[in-house]
Sequence to fold (90 residues):
Amino acid sequence: MSVNYFQSKLKLQKSIAKIVKTHRERQKKSVSRISAEIMLTKSIWSDLEKGIKDPQISTLWRISEALNIPLEDLISEIRNDLGKEFTLID
Fold:
């Protein structure tokens, strides 16, 4: 895989992290509470919010439910944050 793929993947992870953390903080949910709601360890949640973890779609779905955001809205926010030109394919 190319360097561009890994850079793009990291950019995607950072975008997810930023958006998820913003919503969690707006709702005044602690990491302990939200991670318990979706059955993730606090350390995995923390890595997700740092952009270290690349969540599966099933995890994103659980996150959207815990944050009371439709999955398509969460994905739309991520897409808008990344910009129209973003791609994972070279």
Q: What stands out?
A: The mean pLDDT is 95. The helical segments are 3-26, 31-37, 42-49, 57-66, 71-82.
